[in-house]
TrEMBL record:
Family to which this protein belongs: Belongs to the SufE family.
InterPro entries associated with the record: Fe-S_metab-assoc_dom (IPR003808)
Protein name: SufE family protein
Domain Fe-S metabolism associated: 10-128
Domain of life: Bacteria
Listed Pfam families: SufE
């Protein structure tokens, strides 16, 4: 998993929407694919423009995430989101302003209103207590 500091530097270095797009597509290749068995309705995020699946495992109070999407751009965004929260306790994740963190990553120009709704749904699931 790409660490948040390195990823932030990479995305903040982008000078255009095209640079950001290329960087996100490159990042998307670092996200391990989920198996067909993991791509269930239970794991699917509702409200996303593209299909997105998110699996949250919790062990000893620490959250671990797996995610996938059928869209390369969204897979890159998932890498960015997961770099912020992977390996953290739920209480720490809940105290984070994830929308502000994403804005710092230069992603706001890329998030269309329909895509932004999906991102919000992902962030809500990440910050929600275990189901």
């Amino acid at each position: 998993m790409t660490d948040a500091i390195h990823l932030k530097t990479q995305l903040q270095a982008c000078r255009s929407k095209e640079d950001t797009f290329k960087t996100l597509v490159t990042l998307s290749k670092t996200l391990p694919r989920l198996t067909a068995e993991d791509k269930t309705e239970v794991n699917k995020i509702k409200g996303c423009e593209s299909a997105v699946w998110l699996i949250i495992e919790e062990s000893h109070g620490i959250r671990h995430f797996e995610a996938d999407s059928d869209a390369k751009l969204m897979r890159g965004v998932l890498v960015a989101i997961l770099s912020l929260v992977e390996g953290k306790a739920l209480t720490d994740i809940q105290q984070m302003d994830l929308k502000a963190e994403l804005a710092e990553l230069n992603l706001s120009s890329y998030l269309t209103s329909s895509r932004a709704n999906g991102i919000l749904a992902i962030l809500e699931k990440i910050q929600a207590p275990k189901q």
